[in-house]
Amino acid sequence: MFIEPNFGKIPAVRKNETGWIEVICGSMFSGKTEELIRRLNRARIANLKVEIFKPAIDKRYHDTMVVSHDKKEIRSTPVDFANDILLPASDCDLVGIDEAQFFDNEIVDVAIKLANSGKRVIIAGLDMDYLAKPFIPMNDLMAVAEFVTKTHAICMKCGSIASYTYRLDDSDQQVLLGEKNIYEARCRRCYNEGMKARSNH
Ligand code: ZN
Fold first, then answer.
1. Which has more pLDDT, 91 or 181?
2. What is the pLDDT of residue 175?
3. Of 9, 80, 91, 132, which one has the greatest count of Cβ atoms within 10 A?
């Protein structure tokens, strides 16, 4: 049986302490953003200065809100490039970054700089693309992070634990914004069966 990992083990940051990087990653519909918001809200209650950034490309619901699929929301700043995070984040204790798979590899250096300057950096994003290939730059972010949490969805075919994002649309762009109209969370078996059926016709 699958046991939900204990996310509560990650310590809260204290002022003037060392920084670190946390990555929250998984398929679509796995609760990444909900987990990011939960950690940010806990820090905010502790009076830490929190800022959230997201790539300007992700405008699914609202320009300045990070909104999870269950509609919990938190104010965020959309930025065009990862480097745009450094200046506004300079006086924060905790920096949240959502949908990090839409940034280029520059986000890795940005995360390291922020953590080196004493900040707690929490990054959420898709670990794999729709072809089940590592989503750059999430793979590098996982490598440099102190803490990595994989969130899991429920397979929309069979109800098992899902780690894959299956695309219902035939487009071959890596980035295709959409929700349940285009994507399904699937377990390994149902993902592979779907991809095999697709390649046969
Ligand atoms: Zn399945």
1. 91
2. 79
3. 132
Decide if 93 is inside a domain.
yes
CATH number at residue 38: 3.40.50.300
Average pLDDT rounded to a whole number, residues 77-103: 95
Given the residues 99, 106, 179, 184, select the one marked as catalytic: 99
The answer to whether 27 touches 150, Cβ cutoff 8 Å, is no
Rounded distance between C-alpha atoms, residue 180 and residue 14, angstroms: 39
Domain range for residue 143?
Answer: 14-152
pLDDT digits (tens, 9 = 90+) for 135-174: 999 999 999 999 999 999 999 999 999 999 999 988 778 7
State the distance from the centre of ligand 1 to the C-alpha of 30, rounded, in angstroms: 14
| 22 catalytic residue (yes or no) | no
Indicate whether 192 belongs to any domain.
Answer: no
CA triple 143-145-146, angle to 5 deg: 125
Total count of domains within the chain: 1
**Two tokens, residue 169:** 């649309």
Ligand 1 centroid to residue 61 C-alpha, Å: 28
Query: Given the structure tokens 């994989």, which residue do they identify?
Result: 150
pTM for the structure as a whole: 0.86
Q: Which has the higher per-residue pLDDT, 17 or 20?
A: 20
Q: Let me know if residue 95 belongs to a domain.
A: yes
> How many whole angstroms from 140 Cα to the centroid of ligand 1?
28
**Ligand 1 center to residue 185 CA distance, Å?**
9
Phi, psi torsion values for 185, nearest 5 degrees: -80, 135
